[in-house]
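Hello forum,

I keep getting stuck at the same step: I have a sequence, I want structure tokens, and every attempt I make locally crashes halfway through. Rather than fight my setup again tonight, could one of you with a working pipeline run this one for me? It's a single chain of 113 residues.
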Amino acid sequence: MKNTGIKALEILAFPCNQFGSQEPGSNEQIMEFACTRFKAEYPIFDKVDVNGKNSAPIYKFLKSSKGGVFGDSIKWNFSKFLVDKDGKVVDRYAPTTSPLSIEKNVKKLLGIA
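Reply #2:
Ran it on my machine without issues. Output:
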């Protein structure tokens, strides 16, 4: 593939109802809410479990690659992982970490810092 110099960032959202029943709706209701309320313009996947024996494979991988401060479990919705283009988990961020506060890390990863 020819390098065109285009830098790309992809945001992926995985709704989960394991935290205070914040996502009780169907996948369609969740999608409508995210697109209406948050103006989401990124892929929103079907609802998954992020902890426990039914944890989605992507979360098993993410958690095993970057454990949290208090262990591997996801503590609350809006936990974030930064993954490079080769699928390596670069960092993990708490639910309270704002997306804007990790902008410098994203730019560094994209080579535009």
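The two ends are 24 Å apart (CA to CA). If your local run keeps crashing, start a new thread with the error log.
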